[in-house]
Write a structure and sequence with these properties.
Layout lengths: L13 H5 L44 H18 L1
Family: Belongs to the cytochrome P450 family.
GO molecular function, one term: oxidoreductase activity, acting on paired donors, with incorporation or reduction of molecular oxygen
Organism: Rotaria socialis
Length: 81
């Protein structure tokens, strides 16, 4: 391991986590478009493995707005059906 001192800052590489073959064990690989991997019955990955908007102090400021717009889009689409 790497020795750390009090006050040291640690930054994770979300790109490395999102493309880790150890976490995303699908035959097609972590970069393949396989939306089924996120279904409830197929959640065999740790919750920290998908950090869409980052985390901590560097979390995306627009995450709440983006999630709101996705929900609004779904509601509006369902209303027109």
């Amino acid at each position: 391991g790497i020795p750390l001192s009090v006050g040291d800052r640690i930054m994770l590489s979300t790109r490395s986590i999102h493309r880790s073959k150890n976490i995303w064990r699908h035959p097609a690989g972590p970069d393949a478009f396989v939306p089924e991997r996120f279904l409830e019955h197929d959640k065999n990955y740790p919750p920290q493995a998908l950090m869409t908007f980052g985390g901590g102090l560097r979390r995306c400021y627009g995450s709440n707005l983006a999630q709101f717009h996705v929900k609004l889009f779904i509601v509006r689409t369902m209303q027109t059906l």
